[in-house]
What we know:
Layout: H1 2-34, E1 36-38, E2 53-60, E3 67-74, E4 85-89, H2 98-104, E5 108-110, E6 122-124, E7 134-138, E8 148-149, H3 158-175, E9 184-189, H4 196-208, E10 217-223, H5 235-241, H6 247-257, H7 269-282, H8 309-318, H9 332-342, H10 345-350, H11 377-385, E11 389-395, H12 403-411, E12 417-426, E13 429-437, E14 441-446, H13 453-456, H14 458-469
Parallel strand pairs: 4-7, 4-9, 9-10, 10-11, 11-14
Antiparallel strand pairs: 1-2, 2-3, 3-7, 3-8, 5-6, 12-13, 13-14
Amino acid sequence: MKMASNSKKWSYFFQLLLLSLALFLQIVSHKIEAGSSKVEYLPGFDGPLPFQLETGYVGLGDSEDDMQVFYYFVKSENDPKNDPLLLWLTGGPGCSSISGFVFQIGPVQFKVEEFDGSLPKLIYRASSWTKVANVIFVDLPMGTGFSYAKDVLSQRSDWKLVHHAHQFIRKWLTENPEYISNEFYMAADSYSGIPAPPLVQEIANGNEKGLQPHINLQGYILGNPVTTSEEGNDHIQYAHGMALISDELYLSLKRNCKGDYLNINPENTLCLSDMEYYNKCLEKIDLYFILNPYCNDDWLKQDQGMQTRSLARKLEARFETPLIVPDIGCENFLFFLVTQWANHRSVRKALHIREGTIGEWVRCYKDDYEFSIGNSVPFHANLSAKGYRSLIFSGDHDAVVPFFSTQAWIRSLNYSIVDDWRPWYLNDQVAGYTRTYSNKMTFATVKGAGHTAAELKPNESYVMFTRWISNRPL
């Protein structure tokens, strides 16, 4: 009887031990899932990755189940421990940071070849900014890319993007304390030129209030940045300067519209007539890159920076049997490739995407976004006054955010000029023009680039970045 009693006790003990072990493994598994996971391979890329890539989620809100922000983190290929840390926001608003990862500054790019229905191929990008910097590509605002939330639609605005990104970077650094001492820079392009400066200011304010972990904030980088809601008024001057409209039409527009081309009085028939003529002159121009051929397929007529969920379905329908191959010379062909790639099961598995969290992936999701910041110029002024460095650069063939408008708001800051307008070079060739202002602001153009410069002139943009980040003249 005693032996039987001991046997029951041991059986109970082992059951309790197994239960505790299972609970422990579940907790460990949850912690691993909640943090980052190393990506060992990328489907479509031939061979092992020549860089270190991690992906993961950071939970925000009162409960971490409320909002989960997805990110790609690429360690510097030079010296991760000491190289700068960049947080990258793609524009849109609502475009996945995968655009930065595969189109602009990241270590891979798509091989441009005719689509045959198989998984698109990736190749290494030698001019990646990750050669000299650690870069976090983050999917924000909520609902963008692989980020998800219980109530996505209530979390989509300029200011909420600012607050979420601020929470994200402090939590990410808490989970990755080895990067707390690295110099930190905010980097963004296109529409993110609106929320990025307020985000940098919020980080700076948080540091001053003693929020932890302290972020070693040094400055920010903006490419082809939207900055004010009035920049559309500079399109006319740019079109005239690039010989897209005549002198006579330009002078008539200035006279009849009185410099305001965005809020035209319906009774101002002369201005309306001039604008109709203006639009006709530009209707076959790719405004994102005026040197590009115009792509007139129906599936390409959507706004390149403002795709919606319906677009992916249209593309999918277009590629049903018999297969119709689009013109690979059109920039939007790359957007199609990334949509095919990111929706592939093997890719989601490799990136450690949580099953059931995202249905159809789309590159850009603009639905129900609240534009709550109309002008980021005051934030530039405040940040410059605090001594933070900034690099503002523009492709000189971008008609969507023309360099004319960027120069105009920089001039409005009334900074004195430290190093006046001059060419900067790559391989003894003019790569663009630059001017350095007091308050540590540098402006640069990238010659022959459109929207965005980092995508269309990667070598020049890489050299520009490496010189600036190392405090050397362009």
